Amino acid sequence: MYFFTLASSSSGNCALACSGQTRLLIDAGLSAAKLEKALAAVGERPENLTAILLTHEHIDHINGVARLAYKYSLPVYASPKTWAALADVPSYLRNDYSYDLCLGDFSLEFCKTSHDAVQPVGLVLRAEGRRLAYITDTGCVTRGMLAALSQPLDGLVLEANHDRQMLARGPYPYVLKQRVSGEHGHMSNEQCAQLLSWYLQRNGLCRIMLAHLSETNNTPERAYAAAAGALQAYAGDEAAQWLSVAPAVGQSAVWQFD
Fold first, then answer.
1. For residues 55 and 121, is the Cβ–Cβ distance under 8 A?
2. Cα–Cα distances in angstroms (integers) from residue 98 to residues 57, 80, 127, 181, 244, in the given order
3. 139-176 pLDDT tens trace
4. Which stretches in the chain have pLDDT values below 50?
5. Residue 41: per-residue pLDDT
6. Of 4, 152, 194, 198, which residue is the least packed, with the fewest Cβ within 10 Å?
């Protein structure tokens, strides 16, 4: 099993999880043309995708999904209520998440997140005896998230969207600042670090990737420093071996689970 992101920011989000011949695209927040180029750059072809998994219906997660799905006849999966907000995906390609969902070599679990979308979810993917959690776009930690993170993981992709001071002093209008920092917005670096401490205390070390960083209200250095502080108590000087930041554009570090 291996995993990496192709884009991760408020401008577009997309990741790829692979096991055997199964290739799952998580979100499609770039245009179809950009997604095709991004996949080609990492040696993948869209026609070989098994399915597209959507976390919610915001444009930075679904920008290219309708065109990509239609062009390559790719099944698209989303939470049932999300489909009411996605009119462009052909009906014959639409599929609902279910609690016993298996796609090729993967089985999937879902957790509720807290975001101003219709029915947003985080994902836990299992393959080859490994567990990977992908949780972004949540303004607070939900019970479902805690349940998903209560068991050991091999990899955890977690939102570190903004630095609170940068957001407060930044150019966003007041209403948008309130939305971003609210319970249905995005997790701050501090919230991310607190959740990491909770997870590490219960389950020990796993690979961690910080995702969905704001290009206006955060920096990779600030996000990394906050998370590294949480990791320090468990990994010491080896924290850098466990922690990475997903770039806004382009391939992240590749997680290979042997």
1. yes
2. 18, 9, 17, 31, 31
3. 999 999 999 999 999 999 999 999 999 999 999 999 99
4. none
5. 94
6. 152
Identity of the amino acid at 51: A
Q: Measured between alpha carbons, how far is 1 from 236 in angstroms, rounded to an integer?
A: 27
φ and ψ of 175, to 5 deg: -60, -40
Query: 132-135 long-range contacts, Cβ below 8 Å, gap at least 24?
Result: 132/1, 132/3, 132/17, 132/156, 132/157, 132/255, 132/257, 133/157, 133/158, 134/15, 134/26, 134/55, 135/111, 135/159
Q: Which residues, in sequence order, are CB contacts of 2 under 8 Å at separation 6+?
A: 17, 18, 19, 254, 255, 256, 257
pLDDT number for residue 237? 81
The reported pLDDT for the residue numbered 239 is 85
**Amino acid 2: pLDDT:** 96
